[in-house]
Each structure stands twice: as C-alpha cells, then as structure tokens.
Design goal:
Helix 6 packs antiparallel against helix 7, helix 24 packs parallel to helix 26 and helix 28 crosses helix 30. Helix 27 links the parallel strand 17 and strand 18. The protein is α/β, with parallel strands linked by helices.
C-alpha cells in the first residue's frame, strides 16, 4: 500500500490537469511550507513507481545493439567500439545514480546523468547525416525515435530523465538533418520531438494522478476499516434493523444483550414492543416512545433520538439513530440504525441540573432558582397588576453553634431549619437558601403588608423554638428583612438589595425581629458606603488622632494609667463618633492597620509620662486573631522603646467565641513579653470564667451599665459588682469600674472594693497635651 496523500489547494488529486506540469516533471516545487510537504508526498509516489531501472537498461542496450549492427559496415570499428563503451559507461552511471536517488529521496533519475546518457545518443544522429549519408542517418533516427517513444510511454515515473533524453536527442537529429540540408526530415524530426515531449509530460501527469487516486482509495479503505473496528470494540453501541413491518430482523448479539433477551427471541417481534415493556399492553407510552413509533410509522429518519425504554421492568434511556432503506426500485425495506444505552449519562446530567438549581445540604432551591422565581413573580406583577414580596432570613447566634460545636452540628441545624421553613409555606410561596445561614422566601400575589408581616412573624416564631441535634438542645433566632414589589423595586436586583438593607437593620437592632424596607435605609446604606470610602483614606490623610482618659486609684485618687481612645476628624464628614466608624472598620477589617497605628501612637505618647503610668489600648478581635499580631506587638515595643509592663491590652469577651485557641495563644504571647491584659466590658456578653482561670489577666473592667445600675438602686447590679470584685480578689486581679461620674458613684465603688475607677468625675477623654499637663500640675502641687 502506498503512502496516503491528501493534496490541498492547487495540489488536488483530481482532476489530473490540476497538477502543475513543471512541478510534476520536477523542474519546480511550490514555495509554501504546506505545499512542500504535500509535494514531498508526490515525490514519494514517483519514487514508489520508479523501480523500472531494469526496463530502462534493457531498452537502451537493445537500441545500442541495433544501432551498432546498422553502423557496422559504415563506421570504423575503433570509432564504433568507442561509442559502445561510452554508452555502457553512461548506462552504468545512470543506473548507479538512480539507485542512490531512490534511497535519499531526490529525483527518481538525476538530471546530469540523464543528460550524459542523452548526449551519447545525440552524437551519432548529429554527425551521421552530414558524414555518413542519408540512408544510415534515417536508420539511426528510426532507432532513436523508438527509444524516445519507449522512454515517454514506459518510464512515466521518471519524467525529467525521459524529457531530457527526448529533447536532447530530438534536437540533435533536427540539427543533423538541417546541416545535411534534409529539410523534410528536419521538419519531421522537430514535429515528432514536440509530440513525444508533450505526450511524455501528459503521461507522467496521468501516472501521478492515478497513483494519488490509488493512495486515496487505500487510505479511505483503511479509515473505514478503522472506524468499523472502533465501533465493534465499543461495547456501549449496537446495530439494529427492522423489516418493512417494523419488526426486528437479524438482531446483533449486543442488541439482544441490551434488550435482555437471546437474539433468537427477538426475531420477528415489533421493535416498539421490545423496548416498551409492560407499557405495550396498556398503551401508556412515555412521550419519547410515542415519537419513536411515529418516526418508524412515517418512515422518517432520525438521529440521536433520546428514548425512555423499559427493559426487564426497569426504565432506562436509549439514544437511537435510524435511516429508512429502499431497494433499487424505490420500495421500502425497513430501518437500519445504531443505538446505545445512555442511562448513566442521562442521570448524571439530571443530577448536575438539579445541583445547579438546588442546595445540596438542605434540598431547598438555591440562589439561582430563587432569583428566577423572583423574576417570574415580578413578571406576574406586571401582567396581573398584583404585588410580590421578597424576604431575607438570617439566623441569629448560628455562628456560636458552629464555633462551639463544629460545622457538622451546624450543618444538621441548617437542615432542620430548612424542614421547618418548608412546613410553613403555602403554594404561592417559595423558600430557598442563599448561602451560609441565610435563607429567603419569594411570595407571589401579595395582598398587603400585613400578609408579609404575618409570614415573617410566623418564620421568626417557628425558627426560634429549640432544636434537638445530636443530643444537643440548640436555640437560634431569626432576623427578617423584606421588600415588596413593585413598590420597593421593579427589578430582581433592587428587591434583593432592599430586602438585604432591611435585614441589616434588623440585625443592627439586636435580631429576632422583622423590618421592612424604607427609603431611609438606602440613604443610610449610601452614607455608610461613603463613610467606608473615607475611612480607607483616613490614615493616609492624617485624620486619625488619640484622646486619653485617666484611670485613677479609687482610694488615693491619683492617676495610674490612661486609656487611649481613637478619634476621627474626617475632611469630608467632620468629627465622627467612634460608635459610627468603629463597626465599619471592624466589618471591613480596616481595624487591623488602624489598630496597629493606635498601638504605635499610644506607646510613643506614653514615653512622655512618668515611668509608673501605664497606657491601655483596646485591641479588636480582628487584630488579635491576625496571624502576625505577635510580630506587630514586638515591632511596636522595639521601635518605640516603651517597657512592656507599661502597656495594657484591653480585649472583650467576644474574642473567645470566634477562635478561643488562637486568642489564648496570642494573649499568652503578649503576656510572655511582659504586657498586661485587661478584660473589658466584663459580664455584658459571653461568660469567660473558664478563661479567667486559664489566662493570667491583670485587670477586670466592670462595665458602666452596672455602675449606673448601682447608682439607680439596682439590687442586681450591686450583686454583680460584689461578685466580680470577690472573684477578682480571689484570683489576685485588679478591678476597674467604668462610668464613675459623681462623688456618690465613687463612694459606692470604694465601698464595694474596686481598686481603680474611670469616668467623667476624674476627667473626660482629653488630648495628649492635656494629659501631659496633668502631671505638670500634679508636680507643681507636690512642690
């Protein structure tokens, strides 16, 4: 089998006239890289046919023998012998060069060797008409004419060599006869040479075209064989065939295996009956089987038709292709086609489609499906002039469950929440999970706000009931924010955004409540966005500064420390209270670089105070849980030169809810450096009594709410402060009472045993210069 050829563009295998003549004979080769590759294949085909070196040699030897016999009486033996020797030498060289060219991939017959051989034959025909007479010249011309014809007809694989022989010998004969003034033979020789040369070129082109067609046919046969072998090796596919009555005919073994039957048991049975199972008796076919039956009935071809079939009482999916067959007279003979079982692929695609629209943990619709449902609800609003609503639900205290009991319990809790939500909703309401602990409800055909409020209150009440999960009794609440379309938005994005704003307000009010969207919420959100943008540039613009509030010994009433308090005077918004910008900094984690700046500035300012005065710095949970907080603390103390025992870090109890292990490790690292640790706002949140035992806190700060409670006569506040002081004394901790504003407050705090106090009675937060002046005044009074 010859090498396959795939000629493109101008090098097309058919018709033969499209092959460039000069390229076929080897005088040129197209310059393009692709063309060179294709013509390399053409040369290979020429080489494959250029093995007739024995025929060429035989023709030349026979011609030389005839020419020698004809010239024996007219040519001197020595001259004749020399010519014969030259002929044999040229033939030897020609054969040797042709063999070498076949091995190296060059021209089948090199042109120099062909020209040398032609020159040997050109000499006698050139000189004979002039020197030896017309009769001998005619005899030699006849011999050469036979050789020229034989070369053109019998050696098409080497067209360049054949044309070289024809042109050289033909023109030599023309020249010889012209010199002898035999003009009739001159014209005959010229015409004969032209005809033979043209015929040789065309013969070479037809020869190569035939080889290309042969190679293409062999290649096609090889491809077909390969495809058939590949189809036979593919166990998932099989062939099927029916007769003109749509009954199975000559069932293949794999087709019978797919049907769960023996091949003999399928012969002659209706194809639809075999694949419909018990549905054949009832006539209740799936729609896809109906379509198959219709195609077979109307003799319509089909391709990749997905059909639900029943095999051994099991429903499966087949992909079928079929083509009607007709005989030479046009009579219908039946169907023939291929099929494959695609049940697993179909189930996988259905599973993927389900996962794309449903939440895998809860089984509820996901964000994509909720968005589509809300879009449909808005379309109904436009069509029927009704209203719809979107409710966003966020679980309260869910993070504490995840942090304390693990995500496994948290996931089970989310599944229980989903079950309760599904039980609450009606047919016009769709509930889904947005992600995390956020859920949402799409309500269609809403009558009024009271209907939305009723659903929200029902959700809050049901989700706030206790859950029993893996022997744990869990309590979580729910915050709900709602928006009503088209009043609160005429697009999906607007309704979802506005419901989120309402939810944010509900969470800000303490949770476990429902708020509906109001335009003022959008204004507040825009203000917060602007505040965040300004906060990101506050440090670079030197807008931050520190105030310092003194901490005084309760009995001696002398300053023992200052608490550094962050303040922000924005260029665009003016002086902004800490309770407005600190939560924004916490949420955006801008508190980390801001907190580092506060720590460094506070330590630098403390160097201006007496050595026994400490500085207290509030550290947020975001700072404390940052992996490089310890390195930051070491860097600040090293750069400022402040003694570590003069720095007190104030932390709140909430840090132990997020990552107790990391928080404890970071605090222990700070204490190892010599820093003091104060527990701020004690008693207002998460109980950290266990960590009071594990960590060596230096100070417990009693929240100002308890001090106000004692001042107002609250028995509970009085009992809490007494308990805190007693516990601190037993643990050898210092106590600081915040919010001491009057002499009466101070007297009560002294009586309860608190060591230090902090409040407006001894000084409001002041500038750094005012704080330094306190020591100057104190020194003056002492002097």
């Amino acid at each position: 089998m010859h090498a396959p050829v795939n000629m493109r563009a101008s090098v097309s295998p058919s018709p033969s006239s499209s092959l460039p003549l000069l390229a076929v004979v080897g005088l040129t080769t197209p310059a393009g890289r692709a063309d060179i590759n294709e013509w390399g294949r053409l040369r290979a085909l020429q080489h494959a046919g250029a093995s007739e070196r024995g025929m060429r040699l035989a023709i030349q030897l026979a011609g030389g023998f005839v020419a020698a016999v004809l010239s024996l009486h007219d040519v001197h033996p020595a001259v004749l012998s020399s010519w014969i020797a030259a002929l044999l030498a040229s033939l030897w060289l020609l054969t040797k060069k042709a063999s070498h060219a076949a091995r190296t991939g060059a021209q089948p017959v090199p042109l120099p060797s062909a020209l040398l051989n032609a020159a040997v034959w050109a000499v006698p025909i050139l000189v004979t008409p002039l020197l030896l007479g017309q009769m001998l010249a005619l005899k030699l011309w006849f011999v050469i004419a036979v050789l020229m014809t034989a070369s053109g007809l019998l050696l098409p694989a080497a067209p360049l060599a054949a044309l070289a022989f024809i042109i050289v010998t033909g023109l030599s004969s023309v020249a010889g006869f012209a010199m002898a003034r035999a003009f009739d033979m001159t014209a005959i020789s010229l015409a004969f040479t032209a005809v033979i040369a043209f015929g040789t070129a065309e013969n070479a082109r037809r020869f190569l075209s035939a080889r290309i067609a042969e190679a293409g046919r062999d290649e096609n046969q090889e491809v077909v064989s390969l495809l058939l072998r590949e189809f036979e090796d593919n166990k998932a596919d099989w062939l099927w065939q029916t007769d003109m009555n749509r009954r199975v005919r000559t069932a293949s073994p794999r087709f019978a295996f797919a049907l769960g039957r023996h091949a003999a048991d399928t012969e002659g049975l209706p194809f639809v009956q075999l694949v419909s199972g018990s549905a054949w008796e009832t006539g209740r076919f799936p729609p896809s089987l109906h379509e198959l039956a219709e195609r077979l009935k109307h003799r319509a071809p089909f391709s990749n038709l997905l059909v639900r079939v029943n095999i051994d009482e099991e429903w499966r999916w087949w992909e079928l292709s079929g083509t009607p067959r007709f005989d030479t007279s046009g009579a219908f003979e039946g169907f023939r086609g291929v099929g494959s079982d695609v049940t697993e692929a179909r189930e996988s695609s259905e599973r993927i489609a389900w996962m794309a629209r449903y939440d895998t943990l809860t089984g509820l619709p996901n964000r994509t499906m909720l968005t589509d449902a809300l879009a449909e609800a808005l379309a109904d609003v436009e069509r029927w002039k009704t209203r719809c609503a979107f409710l966003m639900i966020d679980l309260d205290r869910f993070k504490a469950v995840n942090d304390t009991l693990g995500h496994h319990i948290g996931d089970q809790l989310l599944a229980r929440v989903a079950e309760r939500l599904k039980d609450l909703l009606s047919e016009t309401e769709l509930c889904g999970r947005l992600g995390g602990d956020e859920f949402a409800i799409v309500m269609r055909d809403v009558r009024d706000d009271a209907q939305v409020r009723a659903v929200a209150e029902k959700v809050i009440a049901r989700l706030s009931q206790p859950y029993e999960v893996d022997r744990h009794t869990l309590y979580v609440g729910a915050s709900v924010g709602s928006s009503v379309g088209p009043r609160d938005g005429q697009s999906v994005e607007a309704l979802m955004r506005n419901a989120d704003l309402a939810l944010y307000r509900s969470k800000g009010k303490g949770g476990n409540g429902h708020f509906t969207y109001e335009p003022a919420l959008h204004v507040q959100a825009e203000e917060r966005r602007q505040l965040e943008f300004a906060l990101r540039q506050a440090l670079d613009n030197n807008e931050m500064f520190l105030n310092f509030q003194p901490v005084v010994a309760a009995n001696e009433e002398n300053v023992v420390a200052f608490e550094a308090l962050l303040r922000w005077n924005s260029r665009d918004h003016g002086l902004i209270p800490p309770d407005r910008f600190i939560p924004v900094a916490e949420e955006t984690r801008l508190i980390v670089p801001i907190g580092e700046w506060v720590l460094r500035e506070a330590c630098l300012e403390a160097l201006n105070w007496p050595d026994h005065i400490r500085v207290a710095v509030n550290v947020s949970g975001e700072q404390l849980l940052a992996p490089d907080f310890g390195d930051t603390l070491v860097s600040v103390l090293s750069e400022t030169g402040l003694s570590p025992h003069r720095l007190e870090l104030e932390v709140t109890e909430s840090i132990f809810l997020r990552d107790a292990v990391q928080a404890q490790a970071t605090l222990e690292q700070a204490m190892a450096l010599g820093c003091r640790i104060a527990l701020d706002d004690f008693g207002t949140g998460y109980s950290a009594l266990g960590y009071l035992r594990q960590l060596r806190f230096s100070t417990i700060k009693v929240d100002r709410s308890f001090v106000r409670g004692v001042s107002d006569g609250s028995v509970e506040s009085l009992a809490i402060i007494r308990a805190v002081v007693a516990m601190a004394e037993s643990l050898e901790l210092s106590t600081t009472a915040e919010g001491v504003e009057t002499q009466r407050d101070l007297d009560m705090i002294r009586a309860l045993g608190c060591r230090n106090v902090q409040g407006f009675l001894f000084g409001r937060p002041m500038s750094a210069s005012d704080a330094r002046s306190l020591f100057h005044t104190q020194q003056t009074q002492q002097a």
